[in-house]
Amino acid sequence: MSFDKFEQKGQKDFDDIKEKLNALKQEKTEESGGKDGNNKNGEDNRNDLPFLEWEDPSKQKNKISAAEKSGAVIQKAFGIVTTGVEPLEIDETHAKIIGYISASMREQIRLGSYVIVPYKDEKLFGRISKLQYRQEFSTDDATEIHSRRMLHKENRREINEEDYKLLAMIDPICILYEKHGHELQRRMADRIPKPNTPILPVTDKNMVQTGLNIPKAGIFLGHLSVGGELVKTDSIPATVAYYLRNDYSMGDPLIFRHLLVCGSTGTGKTFLTKNILRQFIAKNSCYRQRSDLRLQKNPCLVIMDPQDEYSQLYEDNRLSDDENFLFESESVAFGGISNTKTLTAKVDGERYAGKSKAQQVDFTIPFSFVRHNPWILEAAEMPENQKIGYEVLIDDYFKRADFKKETPTYLGFKSFLEDDLNKNYYTEETGKIHEATYGGIVRKVLNKSYERIFDKDAKPMTELFDTMFKPGQVSVFPTEYIQSSRIRDLIVLSMMSVIVDNKLSTSGNEIIKNTPIILVLDEAHRYLSRASSTQSGKIIHKFSEAAKQGRKEGLGLFLITQDPQDIETEILKQVNTKIVLNLNNDSAISSVKLPPEYEKRVPYLKKGQMIIHSPDNGDIVEITGLSNCVVKHQ
Hints:
Elements: H1 3-31, H2 57-76, E1 79-81, E2 89-90, E3 95-101, E4 114-118, E5 123-135, H3 144-151, E6 164-179, E7 183-187, E8 198-201, H4 205-211, E9 219-226, E10 229-230, E11 241-244, E12 259-262, H5 269-280, E13 287-288, E14 296-297, E15 300-305, H6 321-329, E16 340-345, E17 359-363, H7 384-404, H8 410-418, H9 420-429, H10 435-445, H11 448-453, H12 465-468, E18 474-478, H13 485-504, H14 510-513, E19 517-522, H15 534-553, E20 555-561, H16 569-572, E21 577-580, H17 586-591, H18 596-599, E22 609-613, E23 621-624
Parallel strand pairs: 12-20, 12-21, 15-18, 15-19, 16-17, 16-18, 19-20
Antiparallel strand pairs: 1-3, 1-8, 2-3, 3-6, 4-5, 4-8, 5-6, 6-7, 9-10, 9-11, 9-23, 13-14, 21-22, 22-23
Helix pairs in contact: 7-10, 13-15
């Protein structure tokens, strides 16, 4: 019997029963003298069918609405949880939750998609970790005949989805539940969903943020995405913003536990970095002052800029009204930073004529800086006996300058070394330094490059700390205009050393100590790798200590590189937040320590896509950066 005929027969039987019951009711009413004869008076008899529950017509509308609502939920469902393939199971270390994906929804499901599986009073929040096709019927379609039929079809790619079943493996992330009836919270996945429960897309922004344990405010990094497609919700705006925690609610702001941006050339590192750095100069981005924790200040961004790109933070970008509205609705800071300075080192034969329209301040590196940083002059590796002899010479030179009340200069040190009387004193009279060793020191320490950089016609950097390190200021140190790589490295390493030494020393400069500083180091592998130069090796120890103590000293490292594998391991270990763009080098990918399922995605990330691994901020996720820069970018 067909379903239509079966339905007609069922309706006829129901009508017959109803007619007989009404007849019996009528007889009973007449026998009782018409006491209950409401039908005779044309009134509605609610007891015609005593086994059916009568409902008020006003409530019927609500019932239909609920049914319609239920239908809408079912229509949105990807499919159902099933035990038809393997049993459902969950324990303390793993889970096996399998869903059947309906034929009509298969084009919408993606590896990594976030889903909800409801319980009666809670919800399982999970991620699709595996997709698998299986045959619906036990037939063999791996035959030559079937292959030829499919290849000669007009539309070769079409298959009958109902002949196959698509199974999705759900990796449970957490259980979502309401505390006190309204506050959504999460706990570990400790319940197993019932078979045939619908698998639903996540359309509530609060569920996504709570499920992934990501902050709802802070430093904006981008929008949550899966496979390059933005996660959309029913909220306005529909996107889910990803923020980096930037307050003291759960400890110190995460920038003081350091941040790494890594990606191959052309993946948009600078574009992304400008968008992130702009957020740190928002009005509400304030950090505690070291000497008085009750006081808070905006940070100073100190940027080592080898390509002369970051001074454009000073200028606005052209943004549409729609972009302005979206930025404001998601608390994205945008627009140029008027308090931006371009700080350029005076170098003989070089002149800065770059992109910056910000105020330019020239400075020079005084040779007195070498007194406590003698490694600055060690351009080449020195054997142990040369190191000892060099330290004796540099110490004696500064003592002599103090005694004579002279200003120490590089040219003065050069004359000191080249003086035959001094050479004879150290090699012959006292024997402190062997003659061959003395000659080796002179060859390595005396270099034409140093004559071009020390004690030039500008204010010494040690007298410009109040100009360089103002709260709420962007201080950009461009080096592209300098041809000599040795001089560029010396400038960058000197500034890095100034900041670290004063932050970590109890007797450091109070301006630097009491100003929260975010040190942005582009091409970080050039300076934080032992293999890059002798000078870099000397600063590694300082930066390892700075990375460990930065949290309490108000020093955040913001490292940018295309070669994360070259950064010293001890420093990389201290970096809590890693933003990984496209990388094609296997050793670079393995160095950032991503989970295997995310590590495989890295070489396929498109421009603007990235993986965020920040354990103290939330679960590891994929996000997509803004399509437009919040400041000028050319």
